[in-house]
Amino acid sequence: MKAVRIITLCVTAAVIVAVAACAQTATKPKIVIVATGGTIAGSAASQTSAGYQSGAVAVDALIAAVPQLKDIAEVSGVQISSIGSQDMNDEVWLKLANKVNELLAKPDVAGVAITHGTDTMEETSYFLDLVVKSDKPVVLTGSMRPSTAMSADGPLNIYNAVAIAADPKARGRGVMVTVDDDIHSGHDIVKTHTTDVGTMSSGEAGLIGATLFGKNTWYRSPAQTHTTKSEFSIAGVTALPRVDIIYAHANMSPDIISSAVANGAKGLVIAGVGDGNMTSPAVDAVKAAIAKGVVVVRSSRTNGGIIRRNIELDDDKLGTVASIELNPPKARVLLQLALLKTKDPKVIQGYFDRY
Questions:
Q1: Which of 74, 98, 254, 304 is the most exposed place for a label (fewest CB within 10 A)?
Q2: pLDDT digits over 300-330, tens only?
Q3: What does the DSSP assignment read for 120-164?
């Protein structure tokens, strides 16, 4: 009888442990890592090689390289593309955004982390900020060193991205980016250095939070309209309008503007000097472009400050749009989406004021 009793107690204890383990697993949030490629998935010939192939490492290998992820979330992976972000394009954007919306619509998915190259991360994060239809966390991350490098920065960035996506306090803050222990808004982040690990900055707007080995501190929520309150949608959209960025400079020729229009640009963003300015001949070319129905946005190549209406150039008279806080790459993203809805510069100015 004692033997039977001992066996029963052992079995009961084992069941309790198993149930507790299952319960512990069940309480972990489900996070999906969506991989697009980039340096974070790069592979080089040696640990000290500056050259590498972007997107060479698949998402399952990225996850396996960070076994600590299992301690904070139930993680799975989806491979959307395997490209360097210099090759990011509208087709991948639409595919990525549709997949993110599909994943976040599932009740059991708590959030999404996205691995992405740093070259165009500021554009992709802002695009998603405008078209994701959920207040669940979406967190992009990347790295400046390939996965095979000495002191690769990718694994910890992935760990932090998953921890942020799993954090209930991250909800409702729009699309975010985490690199180098910082948490940026997709609206504000810009790349500022060619090779420095600390390349990302939120400029005058500042960080929205910080993370340290998955422990998050929150400073603010973005003031601009985003995600669930955004009026932009890619439902049924198969292509985005062509919008070109024209870089202004001393002795700027007007034919670079007329050439873009002749080759099919539906919108132009002028990366103007100073406060969004350009040469007088370029202004005349802008007038001609607007007369043909092309929407023109004035931004600045300085990557800082606010482009306000009617300062040195009369936007009301010209019919141009002021980019407000958006730098040229981000202004291009917003203009592409705006052109899906209207070509009215006054309405589009309202978008730039709010987004």
A1: 304
A2: 999 899 999 999 999 999 999 999 999 999 9
A3: THHHHHHHHHHH---SS-EEEE--SS-TTSTT-SHHHHHHHHHHH
